[in-house]
Amino acid sequence: MIATLITVLVSILTPTIAQEAAPIPETSLYIVNSLFLGLLSLLAMLVIVGIAMRDAGVSRSGPVAYRVLNFIGAAALTILVTWISGYGVEHGVENGGLLAPVEQWFFWQPDLKTGFSGELVQTGLGLAPGFDFLFSSLIAVVPVMIALAAVSGRIRQTSLMIVVAVLAGIYFPLVRGWVWGDGYLAALGFVDIAGAASLHVVGGVTALTGTLMLGLKPPQDEGLPPSVAGAALGSLLLWIGLLAVFMGLIGGFGSTDAINNLGLALVHAQLSAAAAVLAALILSSIMLGRADELLVINAAIGGLVAISADPVSAGLFFTLFIGAIAGCLVTLGMLGLQDAGAQDASGVISAHLLCGIWGVLIAALYSENASLAGQIGGLGMIVAVSALASSLIWLFVQVTFGFALPSTPRRPLRWPAKPRKSGGKG
Fold first, then answer.
1. Structural domain boundaries of the chain?
2. What is the pTM of this model?
3. Is the confidence at residue 141, as pLDDT, over 60?
């Protein structure tokens, strides 16, 4: 599939490359943008796989099969509620406003065959409507997976799905509309290009409130987790998935400037992750007497999160500084939460919440479009409203369905259900 895509793109762009002075035709730009976003949407699905594998490798809360089932079910439900309400809520926020008109909330049903004359093209996005919705539904999964990793295996599945439906269908897309649409925070000058706050902070706050609702337990030394290798592989897949989200959110594949910015952003992302890994390796060796594999694994993700507020504008050396601080935050955060008894084996609160906050605030120092007042004000609003919204929905499901896991033992299906008896005699 990738080879076919490359062949198509080369055939489209070859005439344009031969004529250096000529701009890319609008039809070619439309095709290039749409196909690239479709490919990035498929790669973004690795976020689901990566977080689920990391959780299965590091957490002991509940059966692994039950936790994986929760991740798959939550991802499917998120995609569904994005169609029902999330896409309309995110894209319907009016200029400087807080809410989309209620009539635009439900059931996104445009003509997927609108094509080149569609509204999305007229607004300059140069995207097929179907590809735009596909990518929107998959980035909507990111904060859900972050929140789920902190509580999966310790909460009843019915309660978990209610939380996912409400937050993924209404609140999470509302924040994205405030920041990436024409909403209040965009008018305030808040800068968050690749989701440090819009994806990672809102997911991290939800994870934190859910963890606090479930209660703290005394820390116990249980040795190595079930599968460090599985957790490392999951983090690698998550790394690739987040880079795909980076590329899709930065966008613009049809001009030399856009491609240059995209390449620079990916270089910054990789350098930030590398600096975070080395910082966590050194700090954990100092604090624990040895390098801790789980801290180092999560530090890479923390480095990606920290640079995602504005991955284009940071200089190379400043990027290394951002990543190094992110690695220290992951290390100190995970050790501190463990000592406090917080059950966050996947480290999502440190890697996503703390590093997301750090990335948003530090962007005021290097991003041309960001100001300290705008970053603090926008971040404060997102954290406060996220804490309120997530606490209310966690409290609702605690009072109604409860958190306790069902007492009925799980009986997995086996095929064939019963061994067949031989029809012969003797």
1. 26-216+229-400
2. 0.85
3. yes
